[in-house]
Amino acid sequence: MIRTPHGTIRTPAFIPVGTKATVKAVLPESMQDLGAQGLLANAYHLYLQPGPEVVDAAGGLSAFMNWPGPTFTDSGGFQVLSLGVGFKKILAMDASTVRSDQVIAAGKDRLAHVDDDGVTFKSHVDGSMHRFTPEVSMQVQHQLGADLIFAFDECTTLLNTREYQERSLARTYAWAERCVAEHARLTRERSHRPYQQLLGVVQGAQYEDLRRQAARELAGLGFDGFGIGGALEKAQIGTIVRWVCEELPEDRPRHLLGIGDPIDMFAAIEQGADTFDCVAASRMARNGTVYSQAGRFHVTNARFRMDFGPIDDACDCYTCRHYTRAYLHHLWKAKERSFATLTTIHNERYIVRLVDRIRESIDAGEFDAFRDETVGQLREPARA
Questions:
Q1: Domains of the chain
Q2: Which long-range contacts (CB under 8 A, 24 or more apart) does 189-193 make?
């Protein structure tokens, strides 16, 4: 359980991503209705637009976006280093199929340069130049006013060498120390604002010794919680989470950054992860892919033109209670924006509800049985 000034998060919990202080195509009121316990926004995007000073003047992120519950902001590190450098970074990769042409975006220039003090980058919005340091990240996130914020870190890829991973880890630790100091200074200076919990980010790619080292070192800095970050192989998610959680304090929350596949969440929760965030549910919804008990499928396919059943008979979301596959198929064909709204409500509710059911199965001592049944269904070809 995580307690914040804007409410309590019962863990494990899925935290939907509202990148620019909004979950794309969905009102905050709808996110509350579908059971989301918290939302995560991106410091990088809000820094560029509308600017952290605007959010601060509005009373902080929750007030600005009319969201009454807990909020998270990431440090900006992932966006600076992925959008800026041109890396198409996928956090949960299949290492057997990773090729350089999948990770480096074609036709992209190197727009970010990392040094031991911070990162200089060019805005993907207007080409203007900016500089993020640990101190700047803390200043931006304090102005944004989220309940839980992350230390500035360097997010590497599976293609980086072991030598680079080691250098990056040392850099991220030095940045973490600076974040802790700046966070303490800003907390004193901004005592009129509620306390923000600071989470350190554990990197180390797929190297057990580096992951354990990073976790032990960050645990000694007095963080309020921890993020588990960086690119990793999908098959290794549970193992890496276990390495990290075995080294971290048991009384501090552990947030797995950027992971939202249902099967991956089962593996991570089993090994000690408390919360997750991911854009996948909303992104897939906008592109016509929806979740169901029978697996994912494309509601845009022609076979749903005359299908007057809901996306998923077992789902209790607003979309499934009021709209049919045929109607959603029509909206897609007609290029109506309400398609994205209705499919996103369903996908977000599916993931939120699934993690709620995982929590209930843990409380009832039935996690193993629920995991085996659900993962078995998800791994079968979609029958929808």
A1: 13-278 (3.20.20.105), 286-379 (no CATH)
A2: 190/142, 193/60, 193/142, 193/145
